[in-house]
Design a protein that fits this description.
The chain has 345 residues and is of the alpha/beta class. The protein has 2 domains: 181 residues, 3-Layer(aba) Sandwich (Rossmann fold), CATH 3.40.50; 121 residues, Zinc Finger, Delta Prime, domain 3. 54% of the residues lie in helices and 7% in strands. It contains 16 helices and 5 strands. Strands 2-3-4-1-5 form a 5-stranded parallel sheet, with helices on both faces. The N terminus is likely disordered. Bound molecules: zinc ion. The site of zinc ion has 8 residues, from helix 4.
Amino acid sequence: MTDKERGPQSEVTPTLFFRDILGQARALGYLAMALSQGRLAHAYLFVGPEGVGRAAAATALAARLNCAGPTPEGEACGVCPSCRRLAAGTHPDFYLLRPTSEGRQPQIKIEQIREFRQLTAYPPVGGGWRVALIKPAAALNDAAANALLKTLEEPPPRHLIILAAAQEGDLFPTLVSRCQKLTFAPLPPALIRQELEKRGRPPAQAALAAALSGGSLGRALALDPEVLLTQRDQVLSDLDTLSRGGAADILAWAQRLAKSVAEADTFLTLAALWYRDLLVLRAGGPPELLAHQDRLPELQGESLSGRPETWLTRLLALSRAQRHLAANLNPELTLDILGFRLATT
Ligand SMILES: [Zn+2]
């Protein structure tokens, strides 16, 4: 299982309509065509990072397949009994397979797959389609994956199995080969920012969250805007201290930050975005492109007085440190070196 999949195991909130899914025109267009031609595969592998619409596409597909009166545009109606049950999370034919919380690493176990396999002996309760979403599919343990393989080899009629995975390599090739693969791409930050603003976030907060989201609307929504702003202010004050501080300050800073790799990673990302913003401004880019929009006056001042070579050197030092932390190198030593680089460039 990858880090991206290991995040908070929030339950799936059903999305009934494809039109509510942000981006993903290619994957959704493919599904719409398969639906309209009656050529759905019996199993799909939705590949993409957490929070980009894989589960939403699965529930919208389940809604559309079971809806009593789909619209001419190919969407579910949203008001029939099936749509209402799906929205309420009580649809008897939508089956969510999530890892059980027992054990050190959450796993989807063979008992869960067996239970689902027993169901497949009977037609869907509502007379439509039974849709199973397995998320994250990388949590299937070996026994569960083998049991699932049997179902995929002999697909029961009017059953649709959707596996959601961060990457294909997380799964057994035998499973992958029996699914139709659809890729869900990370979303462009501009699109995420727009959506956050639509949901009432002030533009400056939306820009910062979008820049830190890694292309995942789910992650952007999960970031606490207040905490984010506090972290950012701390990062800017740290950068200031580093640039004028002595060796003792640098070592103390590294020691503090090394205690949490997650916090160190946030520092590296936020600091990198600061230098990126300076480069954008110096190159004549509009303020809407900035991540730290609410600090525009400071950015403008520094973009006039600073040197692009310095910002680039610092960006490279930050990205090197990020790589070293990701490779589990000694965090304190990595940050010591970074601190001295930031202080002397
Ligand atoms: Zn309906």
